[in-house]
Structures are given as structure tokens and as C-alpha cells.
Amino acid sequence: MWDLRRNALERFTRDPAGNPLVEWSPDGRYVVFSSDRSGVTNMFRQASDGSGEPERLFPSDRLQMAVNFPSEDRLLFSANVPGQHPDIHTLFLDGTRHAEPLIHGPANELNADVSPDGRWIAYDSDESGQFEVYVRSYADPYGGGRWQISSGGGRQPLWSSDGTELFYRDFDGAMMAASVSPGSTFIPGSVVKLFNNAGYG
User: Fold this and answer.
1) Measured between alpha carbons, how far is 113 from 122 in angstroms, rounded to an integer?
2) Distance of alpha carbon 15 from alpha carbon 38, whole angstroms
3) In degrees, to the nearest 5, what angle opens at C-alpha 130 toward C-alphas 124 and 134?
4) What is the pTM of this model?
5) How far is Cα 132 from Cα 41, in angstroms, rounded to an integer?
6) Distance CA 128, CA 24 (A)
7) Apex CA 45: angle with CA 42 and CA 51, to 5°?
8) In angstroms, what CA-CA distances link 48 with 19, 66, 134, 159, 180?
């Protein structure tokens, strides 16, 4: 972690295992990261100040990757489904601590981000034969429309803080931005290239 007050870089995880893909809880109290310290890559939660021991959130023999924290009691993650490709699931962090599929199908769905107003979920999928960025209703993903945002390839969507732009990267590493009109109806606008970054993998 980078401490902005002291302008210093500090190590957060101590286990020698791989610990990729970090997500902050909305209140900033916790950090969720994936780790293969238990053999298979699962999700762990730890206080953001580094205190305490990491808690394994949802023990499973399937690979899990945390992708988004839309609310304090819900965590979105990508997980392999037996006989299928990875799908996006919701982990309910309430007393039930159970998971439900959210974006699912025969294709790979690996990354997702919920809009700041909670209306829309952007995700990437290779259902067309290559990864593209799509948007659906977050409350009812399969009860409404589906909009393709990228063209010619797109990965790792991320909403702006005000929900008026949707960022993603193309296959050359360039950062792209799609304008979005706020409101109860999803209206995508034009896509522009913000900058090139061919060295980004």
C-alpha cells in the first residue's frame, strides 16, 4: 500500500503465496484479495490497517477472483463453474454468507463493475469470440436489455465516480472511455481513446 501522508510504500500481505486482485470495501475498513495460500486461489479479507489475520471468505475448491464491492454486504467475484467457464457471482456478506450467480452463461465472464447509482453492471465477456465490454441492469441482469460498449475488443470495465463515463482498455493497452447519460434508462454515447499504453499487459 502507498501511504499518501508519509509518501511511503508499505507491504500489506505477508504470506509468500500469490495475492492478486485487490478490492476495497466501500467504507475503507477492509481489503479483499485473492490468494492461493490454501492451495486453490480463494478470497481473503483483512482490515485495511493490516491488523488481525486474513479471513477466508468463502472456502471453495474453485478458483475465485474478487472483482467489485457494490455495497457493504455484497462482493462480486469471478469463479469457475464445473463444466463451464468462469462466471460472475455475488457473495452475500451477511449472516448467510452464501453465493449466487449473477452474470452467467457458456462464455467467460471475468471482470465486472457496478455503476455508482447501483443501476447498471458493466462486465467483459468473450461470448462473441473475443472479449468485449457489455452493460446490463444490475438488479435484473436478464430481465432487460444488454448493450455492447466496446468494439474490436475490450477488457476490465470501470465506472467513473459520477457514473457518466465507463472506462475500459482495448487489446493494445489503450485506455478507452464511453460516455453515459445518467438516468433510469441506459443511454450509451460515443467512445474515445484517452491515451495509448502499449506496454501495459
Assistant:
1) 5
2) 11
3) 30
4) 0.91
5) 25
6) 31
7) 140
8) 15, 16, 31, 23, 32
* Phi and psi, residue 39, nearest 5°: 110, -70
Which triple of cell numbers denotes residue 71?
Answer: 455495497
Question: Taking a C-beta distance cutoff of 8 angstroms, is the pair 15, 35 a contact?
Answer: yes
Question: The C-alpha cell of 192 is what?
Answer: 474515445
DSSP-based three-state secondary structure for 58:
coil
pLDDT digits (tens, 9 = 90+) for 54-95: 999 999 999 999 999 999 999 999 998 776 789 999 999 998
Alpha-carbon torsion, ordered 103, 105, 108, 112, to 10 deg? -10
Encode pLDDT of 11-46 as tens digits.
999 888 888 889 999 999 999 999 999 889 999 999
Would you say the C-alpha torsion 40, 46, 51, 53 has a positive or negative sign?
Answer: negative
Please say whether the beta carbons of 177 and 163 come within 8 A.
no
